[in-house]
Amino acid sequence: MTMKCLNHQKSHEFICYQCNCLMCSKCIFIHSKDHPDHFDQCEHIDDIKHSLSTLKLDDIIDTTTTNNHINNENKNNNNNEFRFKSQINNKLKYLWESLRSSTSRYQSLSTTENDIKQHFEQLHQYLIREEHKLQRDIINDKHTITNQIDNNLMNLKYLINIIKLFNKLNNNENNSNEDTSNIPDTTTLYSTTTIMESITTSSSLQSFINHNNQTLFNEYNNYFNIDSLLKQHSSDSSSILLDIIHKYNNQFNESTTTQIIIT
Ligand SMILES: [Zn+2]
Ligand SMILES: [Zn+2]
């Protein structure tokens, strides 16, 4: 690689930034004739050297913002007015200003992005709090109702048992062979939710009992042992009936009153 002009065998002294070509003193003459508009873009090596030697990086400031612009004008007026500035200086200034503006724009976008994020985070938290607030009362209410239903079901089951027992005592000969010991209690296999569905679909208490006669109202799933009651009351059905009604009142009346207060 040679730094001499191949056409004139002279050293390169000029550069045209527009064409990015190196030229000797004869080439520049031809070039300026061919491209008079490139006059501003051509620089002599001495000028470039001078410009770089006097270059103060402190003077490369961002003049796109108003404050810096005023400062720069003042500096230019105070210092030598006709100082030549190479394209390199201009490029430095352009790059610095571009970096400054890109950074500023990027940071501004980040700030907005963060503001949006925070705003929606607050909204989310507010919505979650409101949701929990509204649901808390509903959950409490549902819990109370579930307890109420469970209690009433127990109550109902006991009363149905009394009626069944009463019917059995009236037809005692048909039911004496029943084995009540080995059938497991399947009531617990049915949730209150399932029972509630049954309550909704049953048009009467009888259809509700029929619907659940294998579970809640399973005839073996009784509170009473008929044999022991018969023995206890010397087979006096009136005495048995009064006894279990009395027991029923003892067991449920208190909770029934409490329930009314809750409701
Ligand atoms: Zn040129
Ligand atoms: Zn040349």
Automatic annotation (TrEMBL):
Highest taxon above the source species: Eukaryota
Protein name per Swiss-Prot or TrEMBL: B box-type domain-containing protein
Organism name: Heterostelium pallidum (strain ATCC 26659 / Pp 5 / PN500)
